[in-house]
Every structure is written in C-alpha cells, then in structure tokens.
Amino acid sequence: QLQAFGGGLVQAGGFLKLSCVVSGLTLDEYSIGWFRQAPGKEREGISCISHVDGSSAYRDSVKGRFTISRDKAKNTVFLQMNSLKPEDTALYYCVADQIPGVVSPQGTLNPIYWGQGTQVTVSS
To answer: N or C: which end of the chain has fewer CB within 10 A?
Structure first.
C-alpha cells in the first residue's frame, strides 16, 4: 500500500526526490512520514505531513535541505532532498498512520503502514 521510489547514488551536495505512492489509503485520512535507517544505527523519523491540516515537520538535521509535499490527486507524497551529505545515506521508508504524531520525527516510530524502502547513498 506504500511504495517508495527515487533512491540512488549521488555525490555529496547533490539532490534526489523520493516518491511515496499510496494505494488503498487516502491522504485525506492518513498522515505520511519518511523514516530512514542506516546500517548500525537506529531508525529515525525525518519528515512528515499531516492529513489534518497539511502541516509538515522535519528532523533538525534535515531542516532547510529536505522538503516534503503531497499530490492528493496522485495519492503521492514526495521528499525533495537537496544538499545531500554522506550522513544522509540510509534506507528510506515512507509510513502512514491516522494519528499524525505517530509519523512525526518525534513520533513513536511505529506507524501502522510501512513501505518497502528505497536506498539513498551519498558519496563524499
């Protein structure tokens, strides 16, 4: 029900745009978040967009570099990632839950729906 696309290999300073295609759910009823997990590190929430009011939130380490957006007509959420750093290297997941706080960067990291992940690798 959640499919993430757009990962790849990019040099530091470059950009990527991730897409999360949502099926079987609507963006009017579910908030969407992006999480990531690097090898040997804990999973972390990095951004989210609320279905309640469209507000967004970001982890401090990506503020000013990443932008989350949504296209309700396409039932798709995007994560534009600019000025990428090697420390952004991770497997990126999109997640969904009806409680906005669950998918937020400060949330429980236990949303009800998970996508399969897309790998982002940033070389130095």
So the answer is: C
